[in-house]
Model the fold of this input.
Amino acid sequence: MKASNQLWRSRIGGFALIGPLLVGGTGILSGTAHADATCGPATVTTALPMRTPLLDWSENIGYDARGDLWVSRILRDKVERFDPQGHLLGSVEVHSPGAVRLGPDGLMYVVSGDSPLNLLPGPATGTVLRFDPASDNPVAQVFVTGLGMPNGLGLDAAGNVYVADSRLGLRRFHPDGGLDADWTARAPQNLDVAGGVDGMEFNGLAVVGNSLYTTLSSSVTGRVLRVPIDAPHSFEVTADMSSAGTLMPDDLVAAGDGLYVTTTLGQVVRVDPVSHGVCTVYSGEPVTSVAVDPAAPSDLLAGTESGDVLRLRPNG
Done:
């Protein structure tokens, strides 16, 4: 393991602050993004097979505190629950669900309205819902309203909620659901080219200590940004997927050896946020989402447009 990865692992292990991993001005990539030849293709198996092709499109995945996996079935308008053995235990009704994440309060948070139709001008009808995964029959309750096309989602240890809204940009909400207008105004905005946002449609989002990582789906370079939570105007470029020969980044997750970013073109790319090195660990069908298996932290689970949930075991 490289020294930079040892530093990264030590920071994410206990929800400690990452601090300024990158240096340089707002939106500037410190160092040059480059292909990293130290990783090989992941071992791939099917963790959860689809039941009906496409209709089972697994838009996003996330684990609850018990270790059950929740899968956002965007075309079924529900989030399904599976136990570690892959048995379907139940579901929660959610319109066009996107990212689903465990909060520090033990509740599951999920965005609703993750539809390209919500990119069009009109009322902002997207929401964040939450539900109790410990309930025998959980029902999603409205937590946040007034979103455009909410896609990515993350929470910090204090319970603040961050949304990557493909239409409206990054948003932060207090634990009571109120918009943090000051933080939101200072966060990166669509097409802020001078600041380093070379596109639009904020998509994936991962909170790691005092940093927020987010992807831009419609970026000419397939950009991944790091946003310091304490200073969102000082965001920086972490990597460009074009350095790995791909574009259209989607979801992402922090793992022990860096970030893993999925792409709509069918790749999972490992990013070293310290060296900016990128390395493709999977190429295949379009990948919508990724999560770390809490029972096997070296394994990733990945959602797909076909509906299968894959298990990826990176090698090297």
Observations:
- The mean pLDDT is 89.
- The helical segments are 3-12, 181-186.
